[in-house]
Amino acid sequence: MSSAQAPATPAGERSPYIVAGSLILCGALGGLFYYKWGGALRTLAKVRGVGVWSGTADALTTGGTLAQSLFYFHRIWIALVYGLLVGAAVCAFVPPRRIAALLGSGPALRRQVAGGLAGAPLMLCACCVTPIFQGVYERGARLGSALSLMLASPGLNPAALLLTFLLFPAPLALARVGAALVVVFGLPPLLERGAGTSLVAPLGATALAAEPPSSSGDVLVRYIRALGYLALRTIPLVVVGVALSSVIMPVFATFSTAGAAIVVIVVATGAVLAALPTFFEIPLALVFLKLGLPGAAVALLIAGPIVNLPSLLILARETRPRLALGLALGVWTLAVGAGLLFSL
Asked: What letters, b where the CB count within 10 A reaches 16 and e where it falls short, cover 267-301?
């Protein structure tokens, strides 16, 4: 009599050192969830209690490039650190075959859904999730799956979607959800197909080969090297992108008195490029709604959180510039289309 046996786990993956690496990853994820979900739940409770959004986004649109950039980093630096910590743990300790099994093989629909479900609970803004995108992509994820993870974190942020339903008319909120689903699950497979099968990320300098760590010192060295690698590859482009986007933000106000169609196009363009902290698309969109420009509001709700100039620069460096351009154009087209529909 014979019985089927499950494939054995490689001995290296059962070592105490890979267990230590797994604990580092779990600790980074736990800290991220505590920070993001705790803040999100407090914001939701406050909005439900008073029925309105009490904050403004004036600091992102006034005060000059330096002041706006400093405000942005003041708002996101903790989340960016957590993004780096999680991304570095993935690079240093998660075996490539594990990433490939979840996000690199199997039916395309399953891979995309897995990427989206992995990204949404992170609730990181478009900048802060890029180290995690880079980590999973360089460790064996297919491009489309890694993109779904990157886009789902800001685009399918559960708290942001709930706030949209609480503060905006239902049609605008539904338009945001529908567009986010298309961007997260529809655009990545198209971009991957357009990029070609040759666009496969090599194991980066973070990988330290596919072998698990062999000592406690190796665990620490791997993590520090991975953290430094991601920081050097990510932070400079985030700084440059944020500075450039701070020049773009004031454009929103200058076109607020133009025709509705022009406002939608300009706002969608600015929203694709501008760096917004988590939830900051909401007060900006509320301004347009109060001005009687629901098309501009929905365009901002769609494009504002899901991509920005820093994330597009990092994507272009990690893959190809034309792929980042394709993502920007796809998001822009959806935002403009929805915005013009609500402007009729």
From this structure: bbbbbbbbbbbbbbbbbbbbbbbeeebbbbbbbbb
- CB proximity list for 273: less than 8 A, separation 6 or greater: 244, 245, 248, 308, 309, 312, 328
Report the C-alpha gap between 171 and 215 in whole angstroms: 56
Distance of CA 275 to the CA centre of its chain: 11
What is the CA 125 to chain-centroid distance, rounded? 5
Within 13 Å, how many C-alpha atoms sit on residue 68's CB side?
22
311 with 190: CB under 8 angstroms?
Answer: no
Mean pLDDT of the chain: 87
| 58 pLDDT tier (thresholds 50, 70, 90) | confident
Return the CA Rg of the chain.
21
Q: Where are the extended beta strands (E) located within 28-96?
A: none
Tell me the C-alpha distance between 288 and 186, whole Å: 28
CA-nearest of 268, 276, 263 to 302 is: 268
Could you give the CA distance from residue 71 to residue 64 in angstroms, rounded to a whole number? 11
Please report, to the nearest 10 degrees, the dihedral formed by the alpha carbons of residues 225, 233, 96, 125 taken in order: 120
DSSP H/E element including 164: helix 158-167
Nearest residue to 342 (alpha-carbon basis) of 204, 191, 171: 171
> First and final CA of the chain: distance in angstroms?
72
pTM for the complete prediction? Answer: 0.90
Range with the lowest mean pLDDT among 53-67, 79-93, 165-179?
53-67
Instruction: Give the residue from 73, 56, 62, 55 showing the smallest Cα distance to 250.
Output: 62
Tens digit of pLDDT for each residue in 65-121?
888 899 999 999 999 999 999 999 998 888 888 888 888 877 888 999 999 999 999
- The three-state secondary structure class of 330 is helix
